[in-house]
Write a structure and sequence with these properties.
The complex is a heterodimer of chains A (about 160) and B (about 300).
Chain A lengths: L4 H20 L2 H17 L1 H4 L6 H19 L20 H13 L2 H11 L5 H8 L3 H28 L1
Chain B lengths: L3 H14 L8 H10 L6 H7 L23 E7 L12 H14 L6 E7 L2 E8 L3 H4 L8 E9 L13 E2 L11 E4 L5 E8 L5 E8 L7 E7 L1 H16 L4 E5 L2 E6 L11 E3 L6 H11 L12 E6 L2
Antiparallel strand pairs in B: 1-3, 1-13, 2-3, 4-7, 4-10, 5-6, 6-7, 8-9, 9-12, 10-11
Helix pairs in contact in B: 4-7
Classes of the chains: A mainly alpha (about 160), B alpha+beta (about 300).
Chain lengths: ~160, ~300
């Protein structure tokens, strides 16, 4: 095995998986995507490992794989809360959490990827643009539209709670 | 109310915590990477960037060569047993459809069987390295309209050109942005934006150019799709970026500004770069899979071996 690859996988695979599972919403698909992204990375590891920070390269492959995954299979809606049943929900407000995640999974795949990279991975708009290979302006507009939809979902949830 | 922008990181973090992180083996990844020395559907990508023919006159899909025999997995698709029609489809028809899907995916060494019609169950086995694509075999193909966005490199003072060519870089890779170069060697990134998939009401293969690799896919859209396609062609004609039609994200037809546009009748004709078998397989997977059962809730099980 190429030097440094095992250490990279050990240190970064979990974070890549968490990003993938938020974008595709399915544990098994996310696992496959991370596996594929790392395999492709390994084939170019000689070049990738020479980079100052290899992770953006891998994350770029992963994000594009995740978006493409949904282009191929988005005829079936992802089941909400299709979890492993292992870890408990730590969200302080399960209803709000579910409402937001439900809307998130109904967003177009690239818009969802923008939100996950921006607000979960805490990338800057420029970094998100680099990862997804799109213009910064596109990141801004996709994020704004996605947030607007999530905001609507939260508002509806609050309205339901008030009337209940 | 705290704005969603402030609360979203915590919500996403909680959602991510609900999924157990699998163990990734660097050794297994490295071994798979070594075995998977193939490029998925390079002919289609080459067609999209104007290099059709450079990959060989027949336009054949490159085989997934180099796999060993000991790394197989079996994927079982088991439906909920609910039939929309009262007559279950014939097993042979179902298997024929899935095999077309296998060929269209460029998969090799795949075994397909249907051990039960009620509940509908299809079993496929293939190389473990192909697992993501094996999981997709029960799904019909998705035809999408794509607007490509080509951005110039930071150090370029020239605008992207429409006839830019594939220029290698990291090699043709499924799922990452395709690098293209202009005649001065400037590298551009090409990003694809796709809308929802179109509903194809009928599709068939037609030979549009002499030779074994001169077959095209002809797909007729429903009324809504025809309107979207007409709008797409109008946009492409005005835009600075080219437009494409793709099946499962892979370009099969390309239009660039200035090119003569096809008749806007809701019929999409791919570029004639396929073999007869390839074109027929794509046509099969694009149409409503009449041979496949209505699945209900599907359970997908992956087991080693096969």
């Amino acid at each position: 095995m190429e030097p440094g690859f095992a250490e990279f996988v050990a240190s970064r695979a979990a974070a890549l998986f968490r990003t993938a599972v938020l974008i595709v919403g399915d544990r098994h698909a996310a696992e496959d995507l991370v596996q594929s992204a790392l395999e492709r990375t390994y084939r170019h590891w000689g070049r990738v490992s020479a980079m100052e920070t290899p992770e953006p390269y891998v994350r770029r492959i992963l994000a594009n794989l995740a978006v493409d995954h949904f282009r191929a299979v988005n005829r079936r809606p992802v089941r909400l809360l299709d979890h492993d049943g292992v870890a408990p929900d730590h969200s302080p407000d399960v209803d709000e959490h579910d409402a937001v995640i439900r809307v998130l999974r109904e967003l177009p795949p690239r818009m969802r990827a923008v939100l996950v990279l921006r607000y979960f991975d805490d990338l800057t708009e420029a970094q998100v643009a680099e990862v997804l290979g799109i213009a910064v302006g596109t990141v801004k507009s996709q994020a704004a539209r996605g947030l607007a939809k999530l905001r609507e979902a939260m508002a509806s949830q609050e309205q339901e709670e008030r009337t209940a | 109310m705290t704005d969603i922008e402030e609360r979203l990181p915590a919500i996403l973090g909680a959602e991510a915590d609900r999924h157990e992180v699998p163990v990734f083996s660097a050794r297994a990844i490295a071994e798979n990477a070594g075995r998977k020395g193939f490029r998925r559907r390079p002919v289609l990508l080459l067609a999209a960037i104007g290099l059709a023919g450079a990959a060989g006159a027949t336009g054949a899909v490159v085989a997934a060569g180099g796999h060993g025999d000991g790394d197989r997995v079996t994927v079982t698709f088991k439906g909920g047993g609910i039939w929309v029609s009262h007559t279950p489809p014939k097993v042979d028809a179902v298997l024929s459809w899935v095999r077309s899907r296998v060929r269209a995916e460029g998969l090799k060494d795949v075994k397909v069987s249907m051990p039960s019609q009620d509940p509908p169950t299809i079993v496929v086995s293939g190389h473990a390295a192909d697992l993501p694509r094996l999981r997709m075999l029960r799904l019909p193909g998705a035809m999408s309209l794509i607007e490509m966005e080509r951005s110039a490199p930071a150090d370029s003072t020239t605008a992207p050109v429409m006839d830019a060519k594939f220029c290698g870089g990291g090699g043709l890779e499924y799922g990452i942005t395709v690098p293209v170069c202009d005649e001065n060697g400037h590298v551009y990134s090409s990003f694809i934006e796709a809308g929802d998939s179109l509903h194809v009401t009928e599709a068939h293969a037609e030979q549009r150019r002499p030779g074994p690799g001169g077959w095209a896919i002809v797909a007729r859209l429903d009324a809504a799709g025809a309107v979207r396609y007409a709008s797409f062609l109008a946009t492409v004609a005005k835009a600075q970026d080219p437009g494409e039609v793709a099946i499962d994200g892979y370009p099969v037809a390309q239009w660039v500004p200035g090119q003569p546009q096809p008749a806007q009748t809701g019929v999409i004709v791919s570029e004639p770069v396929f073999t007869e078998q390839q074109a027929k397989d794509f046509a099969v997977i694009l149409t409503k899979p009449m041979a496949l059962p209505e699945w209900g809730d599907v359970t997908v099980t992956v087991t080693p071996g096969g």
